[in-house]
Design goal:
The chain is mainly alpha-helical and 213 residues long. Helix 3 crosses helix 4 and helix 7 runs parallel beside helix 9. It has 11 helices and 3 strands. Keywords: Leucine-rich repeat, Plant defense. It comes from Anisodus tanguticus. GO terms for molecular function: ADP binding.
Length: 213
C-alpha cells in the first residue's frame, strides 16, 4: 500500500551515520514505473556527479562511466519505488552493478511482492499499518503541534477521522496538516463526513484521505 512509509524508512537507513561511515559512496535513485537500464545507469551516474550528463549518450559509454564510478567500491544504492516485474530487465541492470567491492548493497522499495522476490537476495521487510494509538498521536502532532491546548470537542471527531485513515501514516499526517488551523467543529465534521471516503478504490489508487486533502 502507498503511504505506509517505505521511502521514509529507506531515507532513515540512507542517512544513518553508521551507514555513511561504512560505505564508500551512497546513491539514491527514484525509479517509479520507468525501469529503463539506460535511464537508470544515467541517473546513478548523475546522482553521484551532482550534475546532469551532457548530450544523449549511448548505453555503452554510460556503462563505462558506471563501471568507473562503482568499480572496487563498497557502495550503497537505493532504488526507490520500483514497479518493474520483468526479470530480464533486472538481470541486465544487476550485471553492471556487480563491479562493486564485497559488501556493496542495493536497497529497493516497492509496493509489489513480486518485485521483492525478483530483486531480493534477503527476505523482504514488509511494513505494516500503524496502530490506532500511534496513528492518533501522529495526527495530533500535525493538527495541534506540541504546545497548543486541545479543544476536547474536537477529539472524538478527530478519532473518527483517524479510524478512517486505516493506520496509514501518510493519511494521518496529511489530514492532520489539513486541519492544523481549523478549530471549528463544523470544519472537522466536513472532513469526517466527506463523500470521498465512500468512493470505490483498488489497492493502487490514491487513498481517500489524500484525495480529500
Amino acid at each position: 500500500m502507498g503511504g505506509l512509509g517505505k521511502t521514509t524508512l529507506a531515507q532513515m537507513v540512507f542517512n544513518d551515520q553508521k551507514v555513511t561511515e561504512h560505505f564508500n559512496l551512497k546513491i539514491w535513485v527514484c525509479v517509479s514505473d520507468d525501469f529503463d537500464e539506460k535511464r537508470l545507469i544515467k541517473a546513478i551516474v548523475e546522482s553521484r556527479a551532482g550534475r546532469p550528463l551532457g548530450g544523449d549518450m549511448d548505453l555503452a559509454p554510460l556503462q563505462k562511466k558506471l563501471h568507473e564510478l562503482l568499480n572496487g567500491k563498497r557502495y550503497f544504492l537505493v532504488l526507490d519505488d520500483v514497479w518493474n516485474e520483468d526479470q530480464e530487465k533486472w538481470e541486465n541492470l544487476r550485471a553492471v552493478l556487480k563491479v562493486g567491492a564485497s559488501g556493496a548493497s542495493v536497497l529497493v522499495t516497492t509496493r509489489l511482492e513480486k518485485v521483492g522476490s525478483i530483486v531480493g537476495t534477503l527476505q523482504p521487510y514488509q511494513l505494516s499499518n500503524l496502530s490506532q494509538e500511534d496513528c492518533w498521536l501522529l495526527f495530533m502532532q500535525r493538527a495541534f503541534g506540541h504546545q497548543e491546548e486541545i479543544n476536547p470537542k474536537l477529539v472524538p471527531i478527530g478519532k473518527e477521522i483517524v479510524k478512517k485513515c486505516g493506520g496509514v501514516p501518510l493519511a494521518a499526517k496529511t489530514l492532520g496538516s489539513l486541519l492544523r488551523f481549523k478549530r471549528e467543529e463544523s470544519e472537522w465534521d466536513r472532513v469526517r463526513d466527506n463523500e470521498i471516503w465512500s468512493l470505490p478504490q483498488d489497492e493502487n489508487s490514491v487513498l481517500p484521505a489524500l484525495r480529500l486533502s
